[in-house]
Design goal:
This protein has helices at residues 12-17, 54-61, 65-68, 86-101, 116-125, 137-143, 167-170, 173-181, 208-213, 223-235, 248-260, 262-270, 280-294, 309-315, 328-331, 333-336, 378-388, 391-401, 419-425, 441-455, 461-476; strands at residues 33-35, 73-79, 105-111, 132-135, 195-207, 239-242, 319-325, 342-345, 361-371, 428-430. It is globular, with a radius of gyration of 23 Å. Strands 1, 2, 3, 4, 5, 6, 7, 8, 9 and 10 form a ten-stranded mixed beta sheet that branches. It has 21 helices and ten strands. The chain has two domains: 21-200 and 364-429, D-Maltodextrin-Binding Protein, domain 2; 202-362 and 432-476, D-Maltodextrin-Binding Protein, domain 2. Helix 13 (280-294) packs across helix 21. Residues 1-22 form the signal peptide. InterPro entries: Bact_solute-bd_prot1, SBP.
């Protein structure tokens, strides 16, 4: 039995002190559906909404609680959820409450599902009425920068559900700092262009019952402890690790990011000479993957696993661990059932790195609510946003969608309680895949397929290093 310092039970106060994030994210596409208000009225705007200039809109749109009741017209909200998902129920409840407080405003919610990612830009460019929309801010601000409204002044309005706090101050500071940091890289003026919600982080999710049955009393924090736990699970008759085609990037990225940090991993996949692939840490990685394969720590299914096969095996108790996002417990809730004992931990610390990785880095982000700068009804639209990110709605997301709320002083869902430890450790925000996906076609067409050759024993560690160095040089020749 491995005896390491166990995780202490986390109180809500402890969680809040860590300024935590988590949420829901990557998934397959859903069919678009529409949920429109039954009595659509002709859109009538207040005088303060006529100006379409970004700065003027933000200034004219600033309202307070005394003027909210005078709002009128129509507001159109495009959601990233399908109407069958639990998030939609929470949104519908928030819209109903908003319309009761603002009877002269009609709200149309269009549930696009993940198809919104390909539909939103053409719709905005065509001039279709969309006042509010959901997107991942990390990609949306660059892709849609000509359409997003700067929200700084609006965020100073009173929040819904947290007395004495502005909208900005009612949301977790770490989330707000993150979305603000995205403006400059997107080519936008410094400020806030998205309101974070449904935050997420990448962690190992594990079955506590299987860990306990194998005699594991604490989660691993180092790679050596991780391997020891894998052996105990194997001896208990449990396959330790799985992944599938949708998330295999997280495993290679997680290892290299833990050893060297995401900036190094980013440079690795963009190295035109191929020489970085000859770094000793790459050979160490390859040898560790060989160990996982040869000792049977990887699921026998990983070679052919298509999403969501891996996460279903975790939920069914067929495998112990799966590296994924904090949306996972919600996605597999129907399969796992209410008695599944969820646990999570950060990617273990990999030795012989450069001190820029380890658990100071965490891959996290959030979905976001963004507003169309050409909206003709910004005051009413932002008032609806206040309900959507208000305490009641955010705690509804926690209760019904197992998502950590974005608001301060809010209750977390039990399956994600241990995620607080990872956020407490984190000081650096790493990108999705810990930088391993940043090579574009080289990452998708060479890095990931060759990793699968290594993970399934089709190529030896030394040959892996040589192949990656040669393939990188060949790919980038002339570029």
């Amino acid at each position: 039995m491995i005896q390491r310092k166990p995780l202490a039970a986390l109180t809500l106060t402890t969680m809040l002190a860590l300024s935590v994030l988590s949420g829901c994210g990557k998934s397959s596409s859903d069919n678009a559906t529409t949920n429109a208000s039954a009595n659509e009225k002709e859109s009538t705007n207040t005088a303060a909404t006529a100006n379409t200039s970004t700065n003027a809109n933000a200034a004219n749109a600033t309202t307070d609680e005394s003027t909210a009741a005078g709002l009128e017209g129509k507001v159109v909200f495009w959601s990233m959820w399908s109407n069958a998902e639990p998030q939609a129920k929470v949104i519908d409840e928030a819209v109903k409450e908003f319309e009761a407080a603002n009877p002269k405003v009609d709200v149309e919610v269009k549930y696009n599902g993940r198809d919104i990612n390909k539909l939103i830009k053409p719709a905005l460019e065509s001039g279709e009425q969309i006042d509010i929309f959901e997107q991942d801010p990390g990609s949306a601000l660059g892709n849609l920068k000509d359409h997003v409204l700067k929200l700084d002044e609006l965020l100073e309005q009173p929040s819904i559900g947290i007395d004495g706090k502005s909208v900005k101050d009612s949301l977790l500071p770490s989330l707000m700092d993150w979305v603000k940091s995205l403006a400059a890289p997107a080519g936008l003026e410094e400020g806030y262009y998205a309101i974070p919600q449904q935050p997420y982080a990448v962690l190992f999710f594990y079955n506590k019952a299987l860990f306990a049955g194998a005699g594991i009393t604490a989660v691993p924090t180092s790679w050596e402890e991780f391997l020891a736990d894998c052996e105990l699970l194997k001896q208990a008759g449990v396959e330790p690790i799985t992944f599938d085609d949708a998330y295999r990037d997280l495993f290679i990225g997680g290892y290299l990011g833990s050893a060297m940090g995401s900036d190094w991993t980013d440079s690795l996949v963009k190295d035109k000479t191929g020489e970085m692939w000859k770094d000793p840490i790459v050979l160490q990685f390859a040898k560790d993957m060989q160990i996982l394969n040869e000792k049977g720590y990887f699921s026998k299914k990983i070679a052919g696993n298509k999403y969501p096969a891996g996460q279903q095996d975790l939920a069914l108790g067929k495998v112990a661990m799966y590296l994924n996002g904090t949306w996972l417990p919600n996605e597999v809730a129907a399969t796992a059932g209410p008695d599944f004992q969820w646990g999570s931990f950060q990617f273990p610390v990999v030795a012989n790195g450069n001190d820029k990785g380890g658990q100071q880095g965490l891959s996290f982000g959030a979905q976001g609510l963004l507003m169309n700068k050409n909206s003709k009804n910004i005051p009413a639209a932002f008032e609806l946003v206040k309900y959507l990110v208000g305490k009641k709605a955010q705690e509804g997301m926690s209760a019904q969608a197992l998502a950590i709320p974005a608001t301060i002083d809010s209750t977390w869902p039990a399956p994600l309680a241990e995620a607080a430890v990872a956020f407490g450790n984190a000081k650096v925000n790493m990108p999705w895949g810990f930088g391993i996906d940043n090579g574009g076609d080289f990452s998708s067409g060479t890095v990931l397929p060759t990793f699968m050759e290594l993970a399934t024993g089709k190529i030896k560690p030394e040959a892996y290093v040589s192949k990656m160095a040669d393939q990188a040089k060949k790919f980038y020749e002339g570029k």
